[in-house]
Amino acid sequence: MRKFWESIYSPNYITGYNPFILKNMNKAIEHMVEAINNRKKIVIYGVPNVDGLCAISSLILVLKYLNADIEYIIHDEASSSGIISEDIKNNVSFLGGQLLITLGIDLSSEREEELCRDLGIDLIVLENKEVNNERNYIYINPNQKGCQYRYKNLSISGLTFKLMQAIAIYYNIKSINKYLDLILIGEQWAEVPLKGENGVILKEGRKFLINTNNYGLRSIMNYYSIVEMDEECILKIIDVITPTINAVTMMDNARIIIELLTTTKKDRAEQITKYLNKSKMTI
Length: 283
Known about the structure:
Layout: H1 2-8, H2 25-37, E1 41-46, H3 50-65, E2 69-74, H4 85-92, E3 99-103, H5 110-119, E4 122-126, E5 138-140, H6 156-171, H7 180-190, H8 196-210, H9 215-223, H10 231-240, H11 247-262, H12 266-281
Parallel strand pairs: 1-2, 1-3, 3-4, 4-5
């Protein structure tokens, strides 16, 4: 396992990048493995910005590779800043969720934690912000008390990649770095500090993005004749996959963007890319 881990960022390997240094990561992987191997319904719950959509999409792709039973939900930020009871009952429970993984958003209160427990929904929360209170569920946040992880400024897609790395270590997935194409875009949108691990992700991510085999990203690059991966080209990709600001269409556009970034069909990716370009022109 040590040799495999050292190859993850090779030749830029630094011991401090080990995802299991993140507090509660080992518990998260134990629960995820149990859900994956037993085909329990996993629901990914994220936010409708570029960083959040890249996080959702990349995790979907990894879990699909492992033949997990997954659904996803995009949070309606206009309704609440956190996940409320109605979200859990009307969305997560309705989908038959047995493991809820949230990316960039936490529960609103202890009431939602109790509801998850009553409904038999296991819970993993990934978040990156300053917090004071301890959580009674699996909570991964490099800024929480007791977390020894060195790099505190990862975006949500960057933090999601740490979860993906931990999954890769357990299942011996040697191609996990290919998802850096999406992670790079999320981190670039979030304007993270270009130091430490962020710097590695942004540098290595460009190599994977220019050679991407993601049908959605490749379709965007072909449509706009992107052949080099400089700052301007990355910003163009970000613009294409940024949900429209119009509250009526934002949620629908976010779902379409996730479909674009996770589709396994070239024709569908090209169709969505044309649609997104047209929708941008009519704003």
